[in-house]
Amino acid sequence: MNPNPATAVAFTGHRTYCGEAAAALQRAVETLYAEGCRTFLSGMAAGFDMAAAETVLACRDRLSGLRLVAVVPFEGHINRFSNSDSERFGRIVAAADETTVLSTRYHRGVYMQRNDYLVSHAARLVAWFDGSPAARSTPSAGPCRPGAASTTCVPQAPASRRPCLPSSEYETRGTS
Predict the structure, then answer these.
(1) How far apart are CA 135 and CA 30, in angstroms?
(2) Other C-beta atoms within 10 Å of 176: how many?
(3) Are 120 and 91 a contacting pair, CB within 8 Å?
């Protein structure tokens, strides 16, 4: 089942994420749900993507109709993770309402294909920016269609200048 992009939200962020925006992430999911968003897509990378998926799963019991779609870039993606992230990946995929695997194998560009899928199937984007230059290649700076709204969990200082901070150091901001 393809999600209705008008009520779908995609997540993007860095692998460096270690939970420091958890409260802002939960508020973002709850706020977007209150605005009518029901389907949340995770690109299933280690770090922010999996944390966002876990947040949706944690909210699902109290937010009726909330759905998680695990967007897996290719078969065997799980093999690129550490043991702990492989177990986490497996738990998330097993609990997701739907899993979409985009390619039967790894190929150059498979992650861009995943990113394009995320932004083309969601009207909203929740992103976690760690301050690094690599963020410029994420969907939040890439192929978002004009007029798409974005809700971003934003650190107050680049990650390179500080260790993981408590969630009180982060806020949720809406932009268009």
Answers:
(1) 25
(2) 6
(3) no
Structure-token pair, residue 167: 């969630």
DSSP-assigned states of every residue in 3-38: --GGGEEEEEE-TT--STTHHHHHHHHHHHHHTT--
Q: Which residues pair with 122 in a beta bridge?
A: none
pLDDT confidence of residue 149? 57
Contact 124, 6 (CB under 8 A): no
Alpha helices, DSSP H, located in 35-174: 48-59, 83-95, 110-120
Write down the pLDDT at residue 155: 52
Neighbouring C-beta atoms of residue 92, cutoff 10 Å: 22
Q: What is the pLDDT of residue 133?
A: 64
Residue with tokens 């389907």: 39
Q: What is the pLDDT of residue 151?
A: 61
Instruction: Give the pLDDT means over successive 10-residue stretches in the chain (176 positions).
Output: 83 84 90 95 94 97 97 94 93 97 96 93 86 54 46 49 33 36
Alpha carbons 113 and 102: distance in angstroms, whole number: 8
CA distances from 133 to 41, 74, 159, 160 (A): 24, 26, 11, 11
CA 86 to chain centroid, in Å, comes to 17
Contact partners, residue 119, CB within 8 Å, separation at least 6: 10, 125, 139, 142, 143, 144, 145, 148
